[in-house]
Amino acid sequence: MTDILAPFAYLCGKPAATAKIKAQAKDFQVIEDLGFSFSGHGEHLMVRIRKEGENTAFVANEIARLCGVPSKNVGWAGLKDRHAVTEQWLSIHLPKPEMVFDAEKLEALHPSIKVLETARHNKKLRPGELVGNQFILRLVDVSDMDDVLARLEKIQQQGVPNYYGAQRFGREGNNLNEARRWGRDNVRTRNQNKRSMYLSTARSWIFNHIVSSRIEQGYFNQALLGDVVQVSNGEQCIDANNIEALQAQINQGNASITAALAGDNALPTQDQALALEQPQLDAEPDLMALIRGNRMRHDRRAIGLKAMNMQWQVEANDVVLSFSLPAGCFATAILREVVDAIEEERVYAD
What we know:
Layout: E1 18-20, E2 28-33, E3 44-52, H1 56-67, E4 74-76, E5 85-93, H2 103-109, E6 113-121, E7 132-139, H3 145-158, E8 160-161, H4 174-185, H5 192-216, E9 228-231, E10 234-237, H6 243-252, E11 256-261, H7 271-282, H8 285-293, E12 299-302, E13 304-305, E14 308-315, E15 318-326, H9 331-338, E16 340-342
Parallel strand pairs: 1-16, 2-5
Antiparallel strand pairs: 2-7, 3-5, 3-6, 4-5, 7-15, 8-13, 9-10, 9-11, 11-12, 14-15
């Protein structure tokens, strides 16, 4: 299977150790954290599930079918991996008393799905409405334990590149290929899901290239003139007058250097930072045609990612690693700097 992230630079160099990931579904556990409480009343039934070997969309469609409602009436905050054990909330719009959700029937039909709890709320869950996820990952048959443990210590202190994971780009990069084709052929569609997916793919790919370029040029933790930096009260552009003060905040972990999520408007970076970012946009004319054709507005994303509550323990030749990440960040960005991961290719029945 092609490693689509192979072109992107490592912060700590390519790992020396190999290890199996997702050898079993339970080796990759994800627990969603919405970060808010439910109202206790309203037309939406909130259902917390634990699933194994199923993707979120399949579960949502099955719940809709059993409840006799359209699939669009079932909402979720985030899509969770299929080959994993994951916990997450879904919402079902059930405004009438006679509309019920039969948890026992769902579990009987699909033993891989368990209903953990339910609650009532006055709003549907929307994509992105979560603060983050907790991960518990087992690295199996680690080939060089000393290298892995040294890397974990370093990653805990300095973080990793905030790359978008391979799943963003589709199997064998199919999403990326389609995004380029849509931009090149000026494809128009009413399918909002596909449109959103390919736009996200385009912006993510360019972002990853900008981050990789900063690492290659030695500017991952080093502010440049014209950089846009996230600070506690918003964003600030670095100039000759504030570069030392903002670099100190970056070193202390109180500010974050950002990179572009490209839009149809000009980059807000200037000087050295603009000279680093603009060539990565220019190198992808088809992706930029898609972005500009859909009038996406420019945004920023931190180039670094530090896991929260990061812990690990050694069990024989395995390492069990736990940490939490904010919404929109990828556990694979952490793993990529730890081991050269071996993941068996799986073929699922339709």
